C-alpha cells in the first residue's frame, strides 16, 4: 500500500441526526498488515458537545490531538466559553494549512452541536481544505466500504438510538471487509445532554 495516509490504517465515520451526532471509529493501529495496537484512540473529546477524529499516521494523530487540547484550553480561558464546532473546524483547517510545506499526514473530522443544538460535521484534507454541509462523512481505509451503507441507511432527523444503530452497522459492515481497520469500534453519540460512548465488538482478526 503506497498511500502514506493508509500505512497505519484506521477509519472514522460521522453522521448527523435530529439534534444529535454520531461519530464511530475503529480501534486498530497497524503497520500495513501487522497489528501494533488494538486500543488506539483517534477520536478526541474537545468540548461537552464536540469531538474531533483523525486518520493517518499515528504519531501525527496524537500530536495534533494534544496540540488541539492545549489551544482549546487557551481559547476557553481567553473567551470564557467553549469553542463551537464550526470554529473548531476553522482552527484545525488553519493549523493544517500553516504546516502545508511539511504537513501532518492526517485527515480530520469534526462533529458536534452548536449553541442552538443543531448538528454540525465537517472534514478536510491534510492541508486544511474544508468541506461541510453533508449528512455524513467517512474517512480512512474503510471509507469507500462505508459509503454504500451510509447512502442506504442515513436519513434526515434520525433519533439518537436510531443514529447509534445506523452508525454501528455502517462501521461494522466496513470493518468486516477491510484488513487495515478493525479490532472493534467505539461509537460516540453527542446530544444536548452530553457525549456517550459505546464499544462494539467486531472480528478480532
Automatic annotation (TrEMBL):
Signal peptide: none annotated. GO terms for cellular component: cytoplasm; nucleus; proteasome core complex, beta-subunit complex. It comes from Blepharisma stoltei. InterPro entries: Ntn_hydrolases_N (IPR029055), Proteasome_beta_3 (IPR033811), Proteasome_sua/b (IPR001353), Proteasome_suB-type (IPR023333). Keywords: Cytoplasm, Nucleus, Proteasome. GO terms for biological process: proteasome-mediated ubiquitin-dependent protein catabolic process. It is found in: Nucleus. This is Proteasome subunit beta. It comes from the Eukaryota.
